[in-house]
Amino acid sequence: MNLTLRIWRQTGPDTEGAMTTYEVTDVSPDMSFLEMLDTLNEDLILRGEEPVAFDHDCREGICGACGMVINGNAHGPERTTTCQLHMRQFEDGDVIDIEPWRAAAFPVVKDLVVDRSAFDRIIGSGGYVTAPTGSAPEAHATPVPKAAADTAFEHAECIGCGACVAACPNGSAMLFTSAKVVHLNTLPQGGPERESRVLDMVDTMDDEGFGGCTNTGMCTTVCPKGIPMSSITTMNREYLRALRKGV
Amino acid sequence: MALATRPEQRDKQQREKQRPTRPVSTAGRLWRSTIGKKTVMAVSGAVMLLYLIAHMVGNLKVFFGPDDMNSYAHWLRTIGEPVLHHEWFLWIMRVALLAAVIAHGVAAYQLSRLDIAARPVKYVHQRRRTSYATRTMRWGGIILALFIVWHILDLTTGTVNPNGEHGRPYENIVATFDTWYGNVIYFVAMIAVGLHIRHGFYGAAQTLGVGSPTRDRALKVTANGLALILTIGFLSVPIGVMTGVVE
Ligand code: HEM
Ligand code: SF4
Ligand code: FES
């Protein structure tokens, strides 16, 4: 099929950008969205033009690198990562708008690439547990109730893609932050830092310039890993609990 | 995510160094964070909501005639006697409500500023009205703030009331709803109250951490029910005057 792409092109962080139109021909419906962009880039290179910069790594839906907004939807029309989106979702002759994540905390680096290191700093401020290194601990030393293990696992699925921030009208990172807080605060291993974790991670989230939650729920409609809205509610509860304990 | 092409690391590091030191007090920490400000909004909103329910029920006295209504208004001034002096209860309540309105409004203003700043660039391709609820809350809140001022000048002080007699609320109410603008203002404001409570009640439950997947439906039903009952209850008074049931 043949498609018209309108892609955000911006040469650097401090330059003005604009939507630029490209035609791609002979797109197979079995291609992933990124493979379709690869063919465009090969064309551009052959024509001596600058290829479109976009983030990608695993191409199997687990690294979270491949963020872009397609026709106004983070990761496009399907609730999955862009690398797992297939061109059969589109039709011959479609015009597809491709833009970078938009949030003050995610400045554009180039074209569709944004700087998501604000997420790293949120994780760095509390998204860890303290454990002795060296020999592996005995597996049964710390029993984990089945329900807690399930909840933790559900939230550990977050791949840090940033779609939640991109979709939120407030550029809020509540879903991302709450996924990690709930993941670790549910487990006994996360117990020692239960209060400081949520307080510090929320502080960092605010400092990085993400907005607050207004419960629109847009984040959960685009999250490729299905992190639920209740994750945010649980983080709110953990936050208020930690404040009451006065850490 | 540390591409060699990623700039601004230095700026970010500098920003981190300049990060304001966190207030140590619980109250300071609460007010400083987005979740804390939301908590202030939720609690002050709940205070106003309780007041609105009592207020709406009290207003229905108008259907029992001038004597019932006016003696009810007089009784309000005697609550707590002889422990409290005449009208003291009313004044305590007014101070508490004023504090709630101010806390709610200031937090709403500050959070809205943060939220808008967190999303400075709009998407070129806007497919969905993602921020419908949030925008309704902001406009609705402004309408409510203006209404509260008008309402006090109308029925509390009597300044803008066509009748404006102290101690005769029944006659004042009828006078207001005999004017077209009185009716228009009340209808707009009461619909705004309904919409505000519909999203606000649900949001407050999430903010305070009492929401959960199993309670989600119940919370939404309660929010819609409260909104509907309050809007209809408040609007029954002008409708009563317009249809001649109250005169
Ligand atoms: C002074 C006039 C008012 C203004 C400026 C205002 C503004 C706002 C704004 C901007 C929000 C946040 C919306 C969001 O999170 O999406 C909000 C939430 C809320 N409002 Fe109001 N509002 C006002 C009056 C009221 C009244 C009279 C009530 C009483 C029923 C109320 C109850 C609530 C509740 C319960 C919330 C939810 C708080 C939360 O999400 O945690 N508000 N208000
Ligand atoms: S919560 Fe979902 S959308 Fe947000 S970063 Fe994690 S995986 Fe991506
Ligand atoms: S490239 Fe890794 S999730 Fe898409």
TrEMBL record, chain A:
Q: Has the keyword Iron been applied to this entry?
A: yes
Q: One of this protein's Pfam families, by short name?
A: Fer2_3
Q: Answer whether the UniProt record assigns the keyword Metal-binding to this protein.
A: yes
Q: Which cofactor does it need?
A: [3Fe-4S] cluster; [2Fe-2S] cluster
Q: List the InterPro entries hit by this protein, alphabetically.
A: 2Fe-2S_ferredoxin-like_sf, 2Fe2S_fd_BS, 4Fe4S_Fe-S-bd, 4Fe4S_Fe_S_CS, Beta-grasp_dom_sf, Helical_ferredxn, SDH/FRD_Iron-Sulfur, Succ_DH/fum_Rdtase_N
Q: Which Gene3D superfamilies match?
A: 3.10.20.30, Alpha-helical ferredoxin
* Top-rank taxon, per record: Bacteria
Q: Which UniProt keywords apply?
A: Iron, Iron-sulfur, Metal-binding
Where do the 4Fe-4S ferredoxin-type domain residues begin and end?
149-179
The entry's family comment says:
Belongs to the succinate dehydrogenase/fumarate reductase iron-sulfur protein family.
Protein name, per record = Succinate dehydrogenase/fumarate reductase iron-sulfur subunit
